[in-house]
Amino acid sequence: MKRRTFIKHGLTAVALAGTGGLFLPGKSGLVPAAQVKGFTTSLHVPPLLENLDGSGNSASFNMNVHRGKIEFFPGKMTATLGYNGNFLGPTIRVRNGQRFRINVNNTLSDVTTLHWHGLHVPAQWDGGPRQPISAGTTWNPDFVINQEAATLWYHPHAMGLTGEQVYHGLAGLFLIEDEVSDTLDIPKTYGVDDIPIIIQDRRFFSNGQFAYVQNMHDVMNGVIGNYLLVNGVMQPTLTIPEGQVRLRLLNGSNSSIYKIAFDDQRTFHVIASDGGFLERPVPMNAIVLSAGERAEILVDFSKESKYAVISLLVDQMRGSRFEAMRIIVNGTAQVKAMPQTLRAKEKIFESEASRTRRFIMETMSMGGGRMGMGMMGRRLAINGKKMDINRIDERIKLGSTEIWEITNRSAMMMRMPHSIHLHDVQFQILSRNGRIPPLHEQGRKDTVLIQPGETVRIISRFQDYTGVYMYHCHLLEHEDDGMMGQFEVFA
Ligand code: C2O
Ligand code: CU
Ligand code: CU
User: Fold this and answer.
1) What are the residue ranges of helices labelled H in 58-205?
2) Which of 58, 169, 224, 354 is most exposed, with the fewest beta carbons within 10 Å of its own?
3) Measuring CA to CA, which residue among 349, 304, 352 is closest to residue 328?
């Protein structure tokens, strides 16, 4: 039986039985280094995808979606999925104003899609569940990049399959550059002092295969792994030049919330959120990112002695704390001053909004009957509804500005974090439980964490493109279980 079938029907299928026992997560504390590679592997930096069009005004790429395998554990090959490689995908880098074309060739035996997370894009090229790429076919998006510099990402989004395909390795970064990112005096040499950091966790069977959703608990809670990967590598080491380094952090996990910090609690500066640069750098000692969220940070390593070792720590918050990566300082200093300002932001004012929509995210008990009221009968829903691709949930007039007020009303027994992600737009957070959000959440966002009991108000303009887009919880197991809806922008 296919896993998506049993997820849909809520059965405790033993879909993966016979593949061996699970490696059980440790209680807390660091996962012992001896279990994994122990910082002997260098951090892999995803290569930049080759632009086949040298004109500058346009960019054209080729991407193959295929099966792969990786030896995460000695002598055991894990079956994976990858874009142009065994696991994860290359980094796509484009410029604002550029014409963007890509051939996405699906060599899998299953349907997939390719969604540009965070991109302001015509609906037909959004790559959500409405744009399936069936097995053996190619999809050819062609549009103009219409957005300021930002760290976005791409991942599959086929109905009911997003979590499973991302888990097996389908994800990559999508960087937009513009005059501001060119001009700012910040590190910008990809892979040298401007480094992508894709953080994910995984769970494995003892035979080395990924242990994706096993039962309804995994759906309700999200699949939380007990091994941590950075750019697809367990416990890597990153050697960096002395001085200032820019890390582009992506929580690329399915359902984890990460608190990210350094072992010496050093201060770093957040310079960008999901939608691009903040107005000015925000000093912090730790940052929380839920699944799908990004942050760019500047870290100063100019005071370190040569070969100093600093650890990047990742606290799963609902699981383990990991020493995720070791950073070794080497090379000559290029001391840079911290910029005072980054990009002047045009604020979206509440007075612009033509209406407020309310959304309740909750776990509902469905039906009784044979399901009973146990975990099997529980369902994740937004405003009491589960995703239906044949239903448009919200209709929005093109050019309007709206406030969306989202409440996580998870019941006493099931205190579940959720998040909300909107396709097409970059919004602004007005308030979190009535309070102004912290500075690093005051820039543009496309995904926001909503803890149990919280109400988050966001404001957004719906401009340029008409068509149908998704909004959903970005805990991917929740999304696949139907915690998703569709909004249509009409002219
Ligand atoms: Cu990152 Cu609708 O997704
Ligand atoms: Cu998205
Ligand atoms: Cu959720």
Assistant:
1) 162-167, 179-183
2) 354
3) 304
Give the CB-side neighbour count of residue 480, counting CA atoms within 13 A.
Answer: 33
Instruction: State the distance from the centre of ligand 2 to the C-alpha of 117, rounded, in angstroms.
Output: 4
Measure the CA angle with vertex 294, ends 290 and 295; round to 5°: 115
Copy the structure tokens of residue 1: 């039986």
Question: Tell me: the pLDDT tens digits for 417-475?
Answer: 999 999 999 999 999 999 999 999 999 999 999 999 999 999 999 999 999 999 999 99
- Atom number in ligand 1 closest to CA 117: 1
Query: CB neighbours of 349 closer than 8 A, spacing ≥ 6?
Result: none
Looking from the CA of residue 153, the nearest atom of ligand 1 is 1
Q: Any alpha helices (H) in 87-202, and if so which ranges?
A: 162-167, 179-183
- Specify the residue with its C-alpha closest to ligand 1, atom 1: 117
DSSP secondary structure, 429-443, as one string: EEEETTBPPPGGGSS
Structure token digits, residue 210: 């990924």
* Integer Cα distance of 323 and 236 in angstroms: 10
SS3 475: coil
* Ligand 1 atom nearest 472 alpha carbon: 2
State how far Cα 66 lies from the chain centre. Answer: 21
Beta strand 401-408 with 355-365 is: parallel
Report all structural domains of the chain as residue ranges with CATH numbers, in order of start.
48-182 (2.60.40.420), 194-329 (2.60.40.420), 350-490 (2.60.40.420)
Enumerate residues with CB within 5 Å of ligand 2 (an ion). Answer: 117, 423
Segment 203-210 shows an average pLDDT of: 92
pTM higher than 0.70: yes
Say which amino acid occupies 26: G
DSSP secondary-structure letter at 145? -
The β-bridge partners of 250 are: 198, 294
H helical segments located in 159-308:
162-167, 179-183, 216-221
| Rounded Cα distance, 89 and 22, in Å | 27
Ligand 1 pocket by C-beta < 6 Å: which residues?
A: 115, 117, 155, 157, 292, 421, 423, 470, 472, 474
